[in-house]
């Protein structure tokens, strides 16, 4: 088994002493992306003249992941990318027919500057780290692998990676404890390294057991190599709300792997994990069906009159408990096969608050 590599990097904040944010009064520098292997940056700035906020995570040796949103719209847009030379290329998940991306450089102060391209045009962007009214988070990354048949040059390999977020030392103790308990699903775990390794070790232990039952009479099957990838992202970070995404992918043989993202909305002030009914009035489940239909028709350009079941696995879309929220709206997310075929991937439908004012508490 290859030695696991673990890194814990504190994302420090540039904030003033404030009881509202529950942050430490100790000022600190943002992480230096030119020297720090893994980190979280909460960035604010503009694309052209449009103010945006970006939550960017260096989630692996060659991987950037996160979200950004236009401040006046508030709809989270997923981003992912890689370092390319001295630049960082981050693509966004918006239009399947057109590539939209950020191409720029991260400086030693945590700033991100370059050019955004999309919609047949381009604009300069400049973002700077600023976690005012937000919590700071550490990033931990680990990877490991296991040969199923040690000593066999043709052995299949099991590989697993994991990237987690953890409240930084500068975070108010009560807030940090609340975040930590929810990340660990209530388990009394205070060591982030042990928590990081737990899922990796569990996956590889399961993989090792499969070697006893694998039929190799006609050779080792091509699907005998397994893989797992898990990470966390920040969707929204504006006190008192912290919205986290938990993503996992596993390939354990078969035609394709299985994956999905689940969201957690934390009210850091009330120390409560929010549900849709904490935000919306009791009649929301029925009232949101037409709003969700309007959202999916817009995303997939489904013409009026065409029934949803010609594209989806359901006749109508009902809100579920896998939701996210920002200051401008609420989104409901559906894993593959929940409402659509695997090829459609995970579907997230965002509804602006301005369209459902009567449903807000």
Helix and strand topology:
Layout: E1 7-10, E2 39-47, E3 50-60, E4 63-70, E5 77-84, E6 87-92, E7 101-106, E8 112-118, E9 121-129, E10 137-147, E11 157-167, H1 173-183, H2 192-210, E12 227-238, E13 241-251, E14 258-267, E15 272-273, H3 276-279, H4 284-287, H5 289-300, E16 323-325, E17 329-334, E18 347-352
Organism: Chitinophaga rhizophila
Domain Deacetylase PdaC: 167-259
Domain DUF3298: 277-354
Global shape: globular
Could you tell me the mean pLDDT? 90
**CATH architectural category of the largest domain:** 2-Layer Sandwich
The helix fraction, in percent, is 10-25%
Tell how many strands the DSSP assignment holds: 18
The fold-level CATH name of the largest domain is: Heat Shock Protein 90
CATH level 1 name of the largest domain: Alpha Beta
Taken together, the total number of domains comes to 2
Strand order of the largest sheet: 2-3-4-5-6-7-8-9
Overall structural class, as computed from helix and strand content, comes to mainly beta
What's the CATH superfamily of the largest domain, by name? Fervidobacterium nodosum Rt17-B1 like
**Low-confidence segments, ≥5 residues, pLDDT <50?**
8-21, 24-28
Number of helices: 5
Organism: Chitinophaga rhizophila
InterPro entries: DUF3298 (IPR021729), PdaC (IPR025303), PdaC/RsiV-like_sf (IPR037126)
Pfam families: DUF3298, PdaC
Domain DUF3298: 277-354
């Amino acid at each position: 088994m290859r030695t696991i590599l673990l890194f814990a990097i504190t994302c420090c904040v540039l904030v003033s002493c404030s009881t509202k944010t529950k942050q430490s009064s100790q000022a600190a520098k943002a992480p230096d992306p030119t020297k720090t292997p893994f980190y979280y940056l909460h960035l604010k700035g503009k694309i052209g003249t449009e103010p945006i906020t970006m939550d960017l995570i260096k989630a692996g040796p060659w991987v950037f992941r996160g979200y950004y949103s236009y401040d006046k719209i508030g709809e989270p847009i997923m981003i992912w990318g890689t370092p390319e030379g001295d630049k960082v290329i981050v693509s966004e998940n918006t239009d399947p027919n057109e590539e939209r991306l950020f191409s720029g450089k991260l400086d030693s102060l945590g700033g991100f500057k370059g050019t955004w391209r999309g919609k047949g045009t381009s604009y300069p962007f400049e973002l700077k780290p600023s976690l005012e009214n937000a919590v700071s988070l550490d990033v931990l990354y680990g990877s490991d692998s296991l040969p199923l048949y040690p000593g066999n040059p043709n052995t299949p390999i099991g590989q697993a990676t994991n990237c987690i977020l953890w409240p930084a030392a500068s975070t108010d103790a009560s807030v940090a404890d609340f975040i930590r308990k929810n990340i660990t699903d209530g388990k009394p775990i205070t060591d982030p390294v042990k928590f990081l390794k737990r899922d990796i070790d569990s996956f590889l232990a399961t993989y090792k057991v499969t070697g006893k039952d694998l039929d190799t009479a006609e050779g080792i099957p091509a699907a005998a190599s397994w893989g797992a990838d898990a990470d966390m992202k920040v969707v929204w970070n504006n006190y008192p709300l912290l919205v986290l995404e938990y993503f996992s992918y596993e390939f354990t043989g078969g035609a394709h792997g299985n994956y999905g993202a689940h969201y957690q909305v934390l009210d850091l002030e009330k120390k409560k994990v929010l549900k849709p009914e904490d935000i919306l009035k009791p009649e929301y489940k029925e009232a949101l069906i037409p709003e969700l239909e309007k959202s999916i028709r817009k995303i997939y350009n489904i013409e009026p009159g065409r029934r949803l079941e010609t594209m989806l696995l359901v006749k109508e879309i009902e809100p579920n408990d896998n939701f996210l929220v920002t200051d401008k709206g609420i989104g409901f997310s559906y894993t593959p096969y929940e409402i659509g075929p695997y090829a459609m991937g995970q579907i997230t439908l965002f509804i602006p608050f301005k369209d459902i004012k009567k449903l807000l508490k």
